[in-house]
Design brief:
260 residues, mainly alpha, two-stranded antiparallel ribbon, globular
Length: 260
């Protein structure tokens, strides 16, 4: 048991936390330990008094029943882990948290307007898949016995939904594509092609809340962030403390490597 928990705590923090909450909440709802009617998105209940604001995000915590609890949890973990570890756009944890806030809010608004809400985790999974696979061109993905380009994976998921669950769920999940593309346009496409700034920057308060650690484990190694620069003192590399070098050497600036 201790080995299992040690393995769990070694997983990427955002991916492990989100997938664990999704799985535990879904088990609680399907075993009737948690009243599911309190978690679904219903626009009429958002504007009641007191407003049930939590429904904007709690509707993303319920998987589909039976095997859906395993598959949906697996997809949530897999694509969140891909963004957290392998995508340079989310080098800081607060960037990934901000992505979830924006995408979940946009999906909730769009699906509530078109379909009056419901449980939208499967739509979020398609959005995660689309964002994660946009930077995987040239890579391959496996769908049952078929091998397809990785960037086509969200469309394969939509096709399976259409075949297995019908047009209603398919149209709901289709809302994930414009939301994922909107995030990509605001944060990458517009700044890249116009030379402008990111139109959806991560709010500064998230950095203070999330408190990003200096050490980040990635699939290709461990990234250690340098400590923050001091607010006062020398910025040229000179040190005011004692050391093995003569004083005249320690006051000559930051120094240069051979060949610079």
């Amino acid at each position: 048991m201790s080995d299992l928990m040690d393995g769990f705590w070694r997983l990427p923090p955002v991916a492990r936390t989100l997938s664990a909450v999704v799985f535990v909440t879904s088990v609680g709802v399907y075993t009737q330990l948690i009243p599911g009617h309190l978690l679904g998105m219903h626009s009429s209940l958002i504007f009641t008094f007191p407003p049930q604001i939590w429904r904007i995000f709690s509707n993303f915590l319920i998987t589909r029943p039976q095997l859906g609890m395993l598959f949906d949890t697996y997809f949530v973990y897999t694509y969140t882990r891909s963004l957290e570890l392998d995508n340079p756009r989310f080098s800081k944890r607060e960037d990934l948290v901000w992505y979830f806030i924006f995408v979940c809010s946009a999906i909730t608004a769009l699906c509530t307007y078109l379909f009056r809400g419901g449980f939208l985790l499967s739509t979020l999974i398609v959005a995660l898949c689309r964002t994660a696979t946009q930077d995987q061109r040239g890579m391959k993905a496996q769908v049952f016995f078929l091998t397809i380009p990785a960037q086509l994976m969200p469309f394969a998921m939509l096709l399976m939904t259409l075949v297995l669950e019908g047009p209603g769920r398919f149209l709901q999940e289709l809302c994930a594509l414009p939301v994922a593309h909107l995030y990509d346009f605001l944060t990458r496409i517009y700044p890249s092609f116009t030379g402008g700034r990111n139109l959806l920057p991560t709010p500064a308060f998230l950095s203070r809340i999330v408190n990003t650690t200096r050490e980040i484990r990635r699939s290709y190694g461990t990234l250690i962030r340098p400590p923050a620069a001091p607010s006062s003192g020398q910025t040229t590399g000179a040190s005011t403390g004692s050391g093995p070098l003569p004083e005249s050497w320690r006051s000559r600036g930051p120094g240069r490597r051979l060949g610079d």
